[in-house]
Structures are given as structure tokens and as C-alpha cells.
Amino acid sequence: MAPVRNARVLMNEYPTGYPEPGKTTVYDDSQTIDIDNVPLNGGFLLKTLVLSIDPYLRGRMRPTGGYTPGFPLGKPLLSYGVGVVLRSETDKAKAGDHLYGQFTHEEYSVRAVLGDLAHIEDKHGLPWSVYTGAAGMPGQTAYVGWKEFAKPKKDDVVFVTTGAGPVGSFVIQLAKADGLKVIASAGSDEKVAFMKEIGADVAFNYKTTSISEVLAKEGPIDIYWDHVGGETLEAALDAADIGARFIECGMISGYNTGGAPVRNLMQVIGKDITIRGFIVSRSFGKYLKEFYDTVPEKLAKGEIKYREEVTHGLDKVGDVILGVQKGTNKAKAVIHVADG
Amino acid sequence: MAPVRNARVLMNEYPTGYPEPGKTTVYDDSQTIDIDNVPLNGGFLLKTLVLSIDPYLRGRMRPTGGYTPGFPLGKPLLSYGVGVVLRSETDKAKAGDHLYGQFTHEEYSVRAVLGDLAHIEDKHGLPWSVYTGAAGMPGQTAYVGWKEFAKPKKDDVVFVTTGAGPVGSFVIQLAKADGLKVIASAGSDEKVAFMKEIGADVAFNYKTTSISEVLAKEGPIDIYWDHVGGETLEAALDAADIGARFIECGMISGYNTGGAPVRNLMQVIGKDITIRGFIVSRSFGKYLKEFYDTVPEKLAKGEIKYREEVTHGLDKVGDVILGVQKGTNKAKAVIHVADG
């Protein structure tokens, strides 16, 4: 077969504010690849099927990176994804295997080693995209964060931010499964409806409703799941009960502004608050088997609900990244690159 | 005996910035008390010996209080103190008993009930003032905070702020007893010398030396003991190692400014940091016996070192409160009210 297009998305310029499609990142379709003959040198050829676009990517769009290293200029972006092995010279990954992990933003890539890529099997008829969402890193984040750090007690009140997103919506369902009262916020009325559908007792649109007023009425809160930081974290600190647990999963209000200030941290002293930050990879190991044994099946049966917004084509990556930073995406953002 | 003076220090006006002696608080010596005949109504008459002036008092100088209620205007201040019972109509407190706890800023007071006041005995020849410092609330704060939240591991590096104060100096000695490397900061060269004397491996004057530079050279840090908040907390977050524990004991940089902003809280996520705030009274119960059984003796023998700056007279309370807020006090600030 003749060489085919191998389009890529490259890191082009570090943004100071919001990332700009076509400037921060550029779509490049100038390269080709000879799928049948490209040398593998003992490795394997991977075809990208799905790429996950998540809020934390903004942190990598700087020279020093966020909690993961910065993307080098002129090189493809990296994000979680699912792909299928087309050819292989290693028994670590056979043709036809599906792999999940960090993918370069390319239609095809040759990998020397399996590295951190994990084999996934779809036993329940879920789209591969779900393995980057509710059954992937975001779902794992919700799962381990809740199991390790929430320490739920009877009659606790939980406040979940970004409650319609892939992490937040999972957290709402974990909290409801534990019998707690859940307050949840998101940025559109349509997201509010989804949060109610999955069980939130109080769901509100933070763009039209005062967070402080909702928490004053429905709190005090015992558990806070943070994806926002800044003023939202301040409101949660003011509304916290003594002994509250704050689970710090993200702080998007500061990602594009150099960090959003928090002025009332003093509340952690007066209220004996524990703030626990985490990234999923350091804590997930002990839950891995339990997660894959139970979560995909529950997702397939509808016992855990999820939503995703699928955009087709690598050329849309820049727009979707911006949408996720601004919160204009409607659900878990995934890029469909190819079937397979 | 004829009535004698019963001087008091009253809350007069809530400050917006630093408290102003004579305006924020006023000394009032217009009242008298007939020690022999004042009716006790089943309670007891207490003579104030020592009052403790601590940083947290600033939080009570507002209508809503800090993590303790606000001081009512026109009423005496309250702080930890030691006093002796002069007369009593209850067997809960006999004449000659020494009591420790929250004292009104008055030379004499009639108490209806013992309440939270605790009996103290001095078996080791310590001044009563020490029972408001290293053997009182500040020492207890260091003790319970370290035992409950520091989770020291071999080769950990600790950064202690306000390391010459009654809490910080105790923490330095607890950390050294656990074999850790201790970095400590304070606001004068004389305090730096004291921190070295009690074992700090690296001691520096934050007014003349860059905190960030010291931590970059001597860190990363695994445990941070915070009395300062604001920019110092930001520097500690930047210098923290993965899995660091931050013990939030005070945030004086914000007490007189309405709260000092922290802009890099995002570090708690990338570094899996735990921030734990606490006030001593909620956690100390289980350590109370152990503390009083061991600490006063070690203080008397010089096995735990402490320093105090004693100021004589209730009329100096306003000045000493201001000094503690500005850090111009040289050591644990106590007001000597009377011998006894």
C-alpha cells in the first residue's frame, strides 16, 4: 500500500492566557507513513483511535510543565488515548491489541516499547472512547480520590464542582451510593439537568446562581471536591464544617491566569480542615483490578451514568482544548481519530 | 481590708489593621473590689497572676471573631492565664489552688463555676508563666500538631516558621528528637541564634534572607509548620516534595490585612500535598496526661528549652499585643499581673 497521511497536532507556542487554536497548537497534515513497511526495529505500529482532551493539559503548555512535564515546542501533544496495534515485532503487543495510555497526537506512531501503555479489552460493548473517560483516567480519578480521601460519614454533605464532567459526575454517583447529600455545580442549565438526573440533591448553575448563597442554605459542607480553586474554593472554605475534607483534583480557575488567589485559607485552622491534593497515577495502583472488574460493566448496564462529547478529527484538537478550558464543552471531551 | 484596685483591659474598638494600644484596647483602673467581702454566691474569687499574649488574639478583635468568638466591646479581653484562688464557696476550687485556662483581663474576678479552668501544680519549680507557654497552650499546640499530623519519616526535611516562638521552638526540638533535618526562620538575628542553639540545622532571618533561596538550597521539604501563611506558604508549596505534610497552625501575615492571598495552591495537586489545619483544643485530649507527665519536668531540667519575655502590668497589654502581631517581641509574650 502506498504511504498514507499521518496527520499530527504540534505544540507550537506557549500561551500566556487561554490557548489559541492554530497558534498555541497547529494541525499538520504534511507527513505520510508507509503502514506496511515502516521499520519497527523490534517495536510496534499503533493506530490512534481516540484521544482524550482534559483540563490538566493546560499545565503542560508551558516550558516547565504542570505536574507533568511541559510539551516540547514543535513536537506532537500527548494525552490519554486508545489505539490498536497494526503490526508488531514484540510479543508485548500483538496486532489487533487495544492499548490505553499516553498517546502522541498522531494518526499513527511507531513505539519502541510498551512502556506505560495498558492492554484493554472491551467485554461489555462500550465505545473505546469511554476507556478514556468514565472507564479511564477521569473515572479512576473520581474512584481513587473518593475511596482514599473523602472519608464519608453518615449525614455528610458533599459539594462537587464541575459536576457534569467525567470526574464530577462519577463523584456525585459515588457520594449518592454512600447515602450522602450532594450539592453540585456546573456552568449550564443543561449540565444542571444532567446532575439532577444522576442524583444530585441540589444542582445549580454557578454562572447564574451565587455559590455562597447555595452553600449557606444547603451546607455546611463536610466534603468538598474541587476542580475550580480560586473564589469557588474560598466559598467552600467559608461554608465548611469543622473537620471537613477538601479533595483537590483541579483548579481550572487559575490555569489560564497564572493561579487564582485564595485569601481565606485561615479557615483551615479554625475548622480543622484537611486539604488533600492528588494525581491519580500515584494512588490508583491498589484500586486498578477492582476498578476494571466492576466499573466498565456498571457503565455498560447504565448503573453508572456517563456522557461524552465526541469530536471527529485531529484538526479539531485545538478547538476542543480551548472549549475544555472555557467550560463550553457539553460533556467529557474526546477526539475520534479513527475507527478500529 | 478596704477595697483595692481591680484594673482591667477592655475591648474598645475593632481595628481594621494592626491593633492600636489605647484605642483598640484600653486600660481601665477605675474599678475596685473588696477582696474579703465580695459575694461569691457559691463560686470563687480568683487572683490573676499571669496572662498569655498570643497571635491568635487578633482574630477575636472583630465582631464575628476568628475561630473563637469575637470580644464584646466594653468588656475585658480574654486570654490564657494562670491565677490563684483567694476565697471559695465550692469544693471544685479551694483557696490556694492554682488554675490555668481562659482568664478575663482583670486583676481579680469572681467565677461562678470552674468551667474549663484546669488545676495545675508546679512540681518542678517552674515559673507560673511557663504554664501559659511551653507547658501551656503553645507547648500543647506543638506537641499535638507534631504527634498527630507531621508523620515524620527518616531523612525528612522540616521547615518551621516563627521558630523562636513558643510553638516553633518546641516543634524544632520535637523534629530534632525524631532525627530530622530542620530549617527554621524567624525575624531577628538574635532569634536565629536561639534557633541554632536548640538544634535547627539551618536557621535564617527571613527579613534579610530569601526564604525561596534557602528552601531551594536546603529542601525540598517534607513537613512544613506554618505560622505565617501568604508568601511564606507560597514559598513552602513551591519547595515541597511529593507527599509533603503542611501543618497549619497560624497565618499571621493575614491577620491584620484581611487575609494574605496564596496563588500557587495548585502545587497541592501535582505534589500530593496534605494541608492540615487544627486548633489545639479539639485534638489535645488524648495527649493531656502524657504532656503534663513529661513536659514540665523536661522544661525544668533544660531538656526542652524555652524562652519568655515577661512584661509587668496589665497597662502594658495593648503594647504587647501589638508587638506579638508585628513580631517585635523577643520570645513568648506574657504579662505578669501579680505574684502568688
Automatic annotation (TrEMBL), chains A, B:
Keywords: Oxidoreductase. The keyword Isomerase does not apply. Gene3D superfamilies: Medium-chain alcohol dehydrogenases, catalytic domain, NAD(P)-binding Rossmann-like Domain. GO terms for molecular function: oxidoreductase activity, acting on the CH-CH group of donors, NAD or NADP as acceptor. InterPro entries: ADH-like_C, ADH_N_2, GroES-like_sf, MDR_fam, NAD(P)-bd_dom_sf. Residues 166-282 form the Alcohol dehydrogenase-like C-terminal domain. Residues 38-110 form the Oxidoreductase N-terminal domain. It comes from the Eukaryota. Pfam families: ADH_N_2 (PF16884), ADH_zinc_N (PF00107). This is Enoyl reductase (ER) domain-containing protein. It comes from Leucocoprinus leucothites.
